[in-house]
Amino acid sequence: ILVIDDEKRIREGCYKILTKENCLVEMAENGEMGLTMLGEKHYDIILTDLMMPGIGGMEVLAKVREQHPDSVSIVITGFATLEHSIEAMKKGAFDFIPKPFTPDHLRVVVSKAIQMTRTLQDIATERTRLKTIVNYLAGGVLVTDKSKNIILHNPTLLKMLGYGGDTLDDQPLHALTTDEKLTGIIDSILELNKGEFKVLSAEIEPHEKGKEPSNQSYLRAQAVPFQNRLGEILGSVTIIDDITHLKELDEMKSA
Fold first, then answer.
1. Alpha carbons 167 and 154: distance in angstroms, whole number
2. Structural domain of residue 105, as residue ranges?
3. In the chain, fewer beta carbons within 10 Å around the N or the C end?
4. Are residues 216 and 246 in the same domain?
5. Quick one: pLDDT at residue 81?
6. Which pLDDT band holds residue 127 (cuts at 50, 70, 90)?
7. Is the pTM of this model over 0.90?
């Protein structure tokens, strides 16, 4: 835990309370020192004062969100106005501790933050495991969110679609492909009603920019909705398989 506050009694008070809870705590006496320490190592939880000389808490929050998105930030402030609260939440603040505060209040908020960091770590671990599995699948895998931004894909997909550009993480779907058949079934999946489930398929041809599509290769894309427990559509999952051999068998049978 990193405590950033220009008031010595607040810094040392947080240190004493949290170390008694078996937390590892370090302190910074201003925002500039805090950002320097954040640049040197990772902290699971950052407690920062909002109003400090020089670099203030808002700038600290913005840097934490940019450089340590899996860290949890808590604002300690005597200026907890609605306007400040909204701005801080937009910059990633998890919670507020108004000054003056009691040791119990600090313990409760930090305990919630610890639970959040564990949840974030579990999600990151599962995401890594999922990505490892997806990367070794024979078919191409493409996962988008509701806004058609790419949130997961594997190398097989890029090879099948002839993509050799920049990283696609969090990029819009059109950065990968403009194939109307592929984008069409994804659009249709994302437009499904709450609780509705369909599997939509389309045959697409691999096409590399600057080259004519091959008449010898065929791909089949199958898209399904990704839903939460309430049946709300969160995004789409598309699997792309090479069906060239199936096409060749059909042609042989026809002959």
1. 11
2. 2-131
3. C
4. yes
5. 59
6. confident
7. no
Closest residue by Cα to residue 183 from 166, 197, 163, 204: 204
C-alpha–C-alpha distance, residues 134 and 152, integer Å? 9
Task: Give me 160's structure tokens.
Answer: 């099948």
Label residues 198-236 b or e (16+ Cβ within 10 Å = b): eebebebebbeeeeeeeeeebbbbebbbbbeeeeebebb
Whether 95 and 78 share a structural domain: yes
pLDDT number for residue 98 = 86
Choose the final residue of a domain: 75, 108, 131.
Answer: 131
Q: Are residues 25 and 110 in the same domain?
A: yes
Q: How many CB atoms lie within 10 A of CB 152?
A: 18
Q: Which alpha helices (H) appear in 140-208, and where do they start and end?
A: 155-160, 180-190
Q: Same domain, yes or no, for 152 and 242?
A: yes
Could you tell me how far CA 205 lies from the centroid of its own chain? 31
Query: Of the ranges 12-26, 33-47, 74-88, 187-201, which one carries the lowest mean pLDDT score?
Result: 74-88
φ/ψ bin of 71: left (φ > 0), alpha (ψ from -120 to 50), beta (otherwise): beta
Q: Which residue would you say has higher pLDDT here, 165 or 8?
A: 8
